[in-house]
Specification:
The protein is of the alpha/beta class. Helices cover 39% and strands 18% of the residues. The chain starts with a helix and ends with a helix.
Length: 482
C-alpha cells in the first residue's frame, strides 16, 4: 500500500482521507509529488486563481507525507497567523477529524507528533528579521515544506527553506495567487526547467463549467461572473485571481509584516500635537462599529461594538473623544456613517472639529497625486506616517490581520486603487472595520487642526521640534486612568 500511495497520492486521499471528489486541478498537484521526488526536483509551484482547492490539498498532504514517507519532517508556513492557524491548520484538522480511520500521530495546536523524528509543525514567516533561524535545525532523511500565500513570502525566507531541503528527499510546495510580478514565487513560476509548475484557472473548475456546485468550496460560476462584471478581463485582479496568471502589474499588500512589527505598540514622534477620534460605522448585522482615539498617531482608547444606532454611535464617539481631550472626530460619511456625522454636527460641540470624509470621492488634486480616490490616498498617508515613525497600532491581532490583508493595484488609468471591500471580506471573513478606523484616525492626525497652547480645554505643553509624544503626557492612557 505504501508503494501504491507513493506512486499515486490520489489513492491515499481516497482510502485514508475518504476524499473522492477531487477535481483535475487538485489531482494535478498530487500527481506532481511522485514526479518531483523521482526526478529530484526540489519545487512544485502552484499558481492559481481564487478558491481552487490549494489549501485543501495541502491539508491532506501533511498526513500523507507523515504516513507514506515517514520518518520525515513536514513544515507548513505562510506570512500571517490567520493563514497558518485558521486556513492551513484548519484544513489539517478537518482531515484528521473526518478520516475514515485514525491518521498517524497526535494532533496538537499547529503540531502533529508521530515520533521524535517524525512530526509536522506550522509557523509564520512574518518578516525577514523575525524569520532568521526558523528554518534551521530541521534535519531528516525527508523534509517537506508547504508554503501557502507563496507570493507574499520574502525571498530571504525562501533561501532559508532551500537550505534544509538537502536530505535524501527534500521538497518545497509553493501555493499561491500570482499577485506580484516580482519575487521568488514569480521567478519560480517562470522557471519550468527546474520546477514542476502547475497553473489553475477558475474557468477550468467544474463548478464554473457546469454552473452549479459540483465540488463544494471551489469558486462558483456566480463568483467568477461577478468578478468579470466588476473588474473586466484586462484587470490585473481578474488575471491573477481568476485566471491564476501573473498580471502585467502587481497587486500588492499596502502594509508588510515588517512594517506592522515596527509600529506595534510603538511610541510616536511629531512636531505638533493633535488628538482625536475616528469612527468607522457598522453597515450590516454583525459588522463592528469601531472608535479609535489617541494622540499623534497612537491609539490610546478603543470602543468596539455591534448593533447600535447612528445617534448612539455619535454619543459614544463624543465620550471616547473626551477621554483623550480630542480636538477632532473623523467619520466616513458614506452610507450609514452620514447619520452619525449629522448627529455630531447637530450637537454643536465647542472646540471639536467634525471631519466628514467620503472614501469613494475624488477630485483633480487626488488624481494628480496618483490615487483613484480618497480611500487610496488615506491608506497611503497612513502607511507613510507608519514608515516615518508617526503612527502606531495596539497589539490587536484582528487589526493586524486586517492591515496585512488589504491590497492595492494600479488601474487602467494608472492610478493607485484599493481592492473592493467585498473582496477583502471574502478572504478575511469579516469587513476590515478596525483597519479602516485606524486609517481614518491617521488621516485625521495628518489633517486636523493643531492643538495650541492657547486652547483652554486642551492646554498642554507642545512637544517641540522632534519631541516625543507619550500617552500619559498628552491626556492619553495615563491621564484617562487618573
Amino acid at each position: 500500500m505504501i508503494d501504491l500511495y507513493r506512486n499515486k497520492p490520489e489513492a491515499y486521499f481516497i482510502d485514508r482521507l475518504g476524499i473522492t471528489n477531487l477535481w483535475d486541478g487538485e489531482i494535478a498537484i498530487l500527481e506532481a509529488i511522485p514526479e518531483a521526488i523521482a526526478q529530484k526536483i526540489k519545487k512544485v509551484v502552484v499558481h492559481s486563481g481564487h478558491a481552487l482547492g490549494k489549501d485543501f490539498v495541502g491539508g491532506g498532504l501533511v498526513p500523507y507525507f507523515l504516513e507514506v514517507y515517514g520518518p520525515c519532517i513536514v513544515i507548513t508556513t505562510a506570512p500571517t497567523d490567520r493563514q497558518v492557524q485558521k486556513i492551513m491548520w484548519g484544513e489539517i484538522t478537518n482531515r484528521y477529524n473526518n478520516a475514515p480511520a485514525p491518521l498517524p500521530g497526535a494532533l496538537l495546536s499547529q503540531e502533529i507528533k508521530v515520533t521524535a523524528d517524525c512530526y509536522a509543525i506550522g509557523f509564520t514567516t512574518k518578516e525577514t528579521g523575525q524569520a532568521i533561524g526558523k528554518f534551521q535545525g530541521f534535519h531528516s532523511r525527508c523534509v517537506f515544506v508547504i508554503a501557502s500565500e507563496a507570493q507574499a513570502i520574502d525571498d530571504k525566507v525562501y533561501e532559508q527553506i532551500e537550505s534544509i531541503l538537502t536530505g535524501e528527499i527534500g521538497l518545497l510546495i509553493e501555493i499561491g495567487n500570482p499577485l506580484r510580478t516580482s519575487g521568488q514565487f514569480a521567478r519560480d513560476i517562470g522557471d519550468k526547467k527546474n520546477n514542476i509548475v502547475i497553473e489553475l484557472s477558475c474557468l477550468d473548475n467544474p463548478n464554473y463549467i457546469q454552473k452549479k456546485t459540483v465540488v463544494p468550496g471551489l469558486a462558483s460560476y456566480e463568483w467568477v461572473e461577478d468578478k468579470r462584471k466588476k473588474w473586466g478581463v484586462d484587470d490585473p485582479r481578474w488575471i491573477a485571481r481568476v485566471l491564476g496568471k501573473i498580471p502585467d502589474v502587481s497587486i500588492d499588500n499596502i502594509f508588510s509584516p515588517a512594517l506592522i512589527e515596527k509600529i506595534k505598540k510603538a511610541e510616536t514622534r511629531d512636531t505638533v500635537v493633535r488628538r482625536g477620534t475616528a469612527i468607522d460605522v457598522a453597515r450590516f448585522g454583525d459588522d463592528e462599529t469601531v472608535h479609535y482615539a489617541g494622540t499623534n498617531g497612537m491609539v490610546e482608547v478603543q470602543d468596539i461594538y455591534a448593533g447600535l444606532s447612528t445617534t448612539a454611535t455619535a454619543s459614544r464617539g463624543v465620550i471616547v473623544n473626551s477621554k483623550v481631550k480630542g480636538n477632532f472626530i473623523i467619520v466616513d460619511g458614506d452610507g450609514v456613517g452620514g447619520g452619525t456625522v449629522d448627529t455630531l454636527e447637530d450637537m454643536d460641540l465647542p472646540g471639536i472639529e467634525i471631519i466628514e470624509i467620503h472614501s469613494s470621492s475624488s477630485d483633480d488634486s487626488i488624481k494628480a497625486e496618483g490615487y483613484e480616490n480618497l480611500r487610496a490616498k488615506m491608506w497611503f498617508v497612513a502607511k507613510k506616517r507608519a514608515e516615518e515613525g508617526r503612527a502606531s497600532i495596539p497589539d490587536d491581532q484582528m487589526l493586524i490581520d486586517e492591515l496585512l490583508e488589504v491590497k492595492f493595484f494600479i488601474n487602467k488609468k494608472g492610478k493607485i486603487q484599493i481592492e473592493l471591500k467585498e473582496d477583502i471580506k471574502e478572504r478575511l471573513g469579516r469587513s476590515p472595520n478596525r483597519a479602516d478606523a485606524w486609517v481614518y484616525l491617521q488621516y485625521g492626525f495628518e489633517n486636523a487642526d493643531v492643538i495650541k497652547k492657547t486652547d483652554k480645554y486642551r492646554e498642554t505643553e507642545n512637544a517641540g521640534e522632534g519631541g516625543r509624544v507619550g500617552s500619559s503626557a498628552y491626556g492619553g492612557a495615563g491621564a484617562m486612568a487618573a
